[in-house]
Amino acid sequence: MKNRACGKILLGFLLLVSQLSWGQSEQDLADEYFKNGEFEKAAAEYGKQVRKNEENGGPAWQTVYRYVVSLKKSKKADEADRQLKRWAKAEGNLKTYALLLIGQNAQEAGDTLTAKKQFSQVYEASKSDPMKIARVGELFEEISSSDWAIQAYQRGQQLTEDPTFHAEDLATLYRGKGDTRRWIETLLPLSQKPDQRERVQGAYQALINTKEEALLETVLYERVQKEPESIATNEMLTWYYLQKQKFSRALLQEKAMDKRLKLSGAKVFELAQLAMTNREYKTAIDSYEYIIQTYPQGTFYPYARRMIINAREEQVKNVYPIEKAEIRKLIYDYQRVLSDVGITPKTLDALRNSANLYANYLDEKDSALVMLDKAITMGKSDPLFVDKCKLDKGDVYLLKNEPWESTLLYSQVEKSQKDDLLGYEAKLKNAKLHYYRGDFTLAKGVLDVLKMATTREIANDAEQLSMLILDNTGLDSTEAAMKEYSAIDLLLFQNKLDEATSQINGMLKKYEKHTLADELIWLQSKIYMKEGKIDEAIANLKTIVDKYPLDILGDDALYEMAKLTDERKKNTVEALKLYQQFLTTYPGSLFAADARKRLRQLRGDQIN
């Protein structure tokens, strides 16, 4: 008996599966006829399904809709009308579908009164249930009755008291009607949900740099005034300002939000970091200043004290010629941080930074060494910090023309930071030291290992220097030209710009047809950049692009031209052209990813 019962259950299950599969195949067959334009056959198949499901909860909307369409396309409009009138007297979903389709027919015929009567019945029957009215909104969309769909979705939001309820559907309808303001307003509440904010920003991105952009700013500002306590709404306005590179406006917004919501400077500090990344040093300085003055006992205070000097330092370094008085002021500021806050893990970098200012900008190399020794002593509990200071010391000794001291320090860091980023950096410095001294075979051996380094920056630097050596050695037994060139490169590292310029001019006359000609022009452009002669630097780079486009510096020169035009000349229109030219000419360049990202930023594209 038990086995017989199990057999009956199994047989019943198989019959059910068979029926479901058959039903599915009938649906597929009808859909296939419909897609192929065989409407008479489609009507026959859909009709079977409608009749089969009338007594069982009613057929699906798509089945009814396609059945009616197929009848009309088969020149059986009268039959379609009879069916709709019959269904309109039924109950449940089938009645709703019939009323909608009758209304659609009336609407297409220009009978607006009949259409309104039918649609009103559907709306009234569902307006008390948020799920039903939302489904009605979807059906109104299906029959292209956008005004009624909007009314249905709005009712759903009223019932749920949730402005995000079907907000995307509602916004899409407004967009379709050309009502940009309501589209913006309807999407905005979705930004309150962290997982939806990027999607909203992506949608708004389409307005940036268009005639509708001003409307976006207006709506965002109005909403902030209306909802001053909403962090998400405030962040959307800040996001807009950042897309437009309006960092000072973004700071005003973040400061206002910080005061209202008592955020302890957290958002302002985030903006400062972003401003530093984008070389917006004035905004970064103003941000750190706000934190220092407003929250002297706050978490971000010691960081802000240190970072504001970093920002000022970068600002000073990017104004030519560099004023030594400003450098001394920066060193004094670093000393005040150490005095006021004390030497802690948060402020140790102030010692390193001061030492590098002494060495690189004041030519006080002994003072730099004394300060680095002090930093090493104070930071001995942090091996990574100590090794960074050792690399700095190695650089200072190279400035002093004491390469043996440099290589000793670089080698120590190579050993202690083996297989780590700092170890690779030390190895690269040693390779460059061999190159400066004319030991090209030794340098290239180290560089070829570094080309497989884990960081792109180090691998790229190693690849470029290795190619320079490969292309310009072996041409004569003494490698005289290459040795003269590497000696000039060392002078440039040591900031002996006048001497380097004199030797470059001499080499250009002596080796006018040599393969090093473009490299010499490249070095001259680097000197111009250090001297703040941006127009002259760009002219040199253009010479390389025009005369040596296929040499190894062709892509470097064009990319550097674009960057100088962008960052120093602030000529966005010309920079866009140069970045586009670069990506078209050198799509496989190591700089392509960075150029593409910056191009998108300048165009106002969404950046994830």
From TrEMBL:
**Top-rank taxon, per record:** Bacteria
Query: Which region is the signal sequence?
Result: 1-23
Instruction: Name the Gene3D superfamilies on file.
Output: Tetratricopeptide repeat domain
InterPro entries listed in its UniProt record:
TPR-like_helical_dom_sf, TPR_rpt
The keyword Signal belongs to this UniProt entry's keyword annotation: yes
A Pfam match is TPR_6
Keywords, alphabetical:
Signal
Keyword DNA damage recorded = no
For this entry, the protein name equals: Tetratricopeptide repeat protein
Q: What is the lineage of its organism?
A: Bacteria, Pseudomonadati, Bacteroidota, Cytophagia, Cytophagales
